[in-house]
Write a structure and sequence with these properties.
The protein is mainly beta. The protein has 4 helices and 13 strands. A hairpin with a 7-residue loop joins β3 and β4. The longest helix is centred in the first third of the chain and has 8 residues.
Length: about 230
């Protein structure tokens, strides 16, 4: 799964990576957590940065209680699940990131937070889905989820799942505005090249939702832990 990630990107890098028509304002966040509002690139406006709350809410959901359980969608079954299949066909998005966290279970039974990022790109895009949820107060809330896939060779020692990281050449296909059949989309949802990934252990401060600091991605043991 993917439950925390990092977005620290120069606006001009965002323009070049995603082909944006304008330079976005993207505040640095070293600990993006579920229910936070994220910068996203929607297939209805693929050259601009929009915003969506992390935790997809299907249009038929009655309240926000299920949002925290919908931060990820499994790519293997996304076209079958009632909560995701309509969005998979029509409402896809790219979620910018510069790295993500995963917890590695080791021989002592304890979980250690690891920061994973790419060696060939400073900013990249997760494959995501989005929906518009109409609240009982009749407010429209845009929400999103990150697709996951089976771990590649690099990620397997850390975790069995990983977020889908799109290749640059696949942004256009993923952000197509029209309905796209699953056989066309699913080949895009594979594990990233393991030779272009790296990772190191970081502070357990990442467990603190709402806490964001550049020190969070520093390799241990350079920093004292707060937890």
């Amino acid at each position: 799964m993917c439950g925390r990630f990092v977005l620290v990107a120069d606006p001009n890098q965002m323009v070049l990576e995603f082909g944006l028509s304008g330079v976005p304002v993207v505040p640095a966040n070293y600990n993006v957590a579920p229910t936070q509002v994220l910068p996203v690139i929607l297939n209805e406006a693929p050259d601009t940065v929009s915003q969506a709350r992390w935790g997809l809410m299907p249009s038929w959901a009655k309240d926000l209680s299920m949002s925290a359980k919908m931060i990820n969608a499994r790519s293997e079954t996304v076209d079958e699940k009632p909560a995701f299949r309509a969005a998979f066909k029509r409402r896809r998005c790219v979620i910018p990131a510069s790295g993500f966290y995963e917890w590695q279970t080791r021989d002592d039974g304890k979980k250690y937070p690891m920061y994973i990022h790419l060696t060939d790109r400073e900013v990249f895009g997760f494959a995501g889905l989005w929906e518009v949820w109409h609240s009982p107060e009749r407010d429209d809330l845009r929400t999103c989820t990150i697709l996951t896939t089976a771990a590649n060779a690099f990620m397997k020692p850390i975790h069995e799942r990983m977020p889908v990281i799109l290749s640059r050449e696949n942004y256009g296909d993923w952000l197509a505005a029209e309905d796209v059949p699953a056989p066309v989309l699913k080949p895009l949802l594979r594990g990233y090249d393991p030779d272009k990934m790296t990772a190191h252990e970081v502070s357990r401060n990442v467990n603190r939702a709402g806490f964001s600091s550049p020190d969070m991605i520093a390799p241990l043991p350079s920093l004292p832990r707060l937890l």
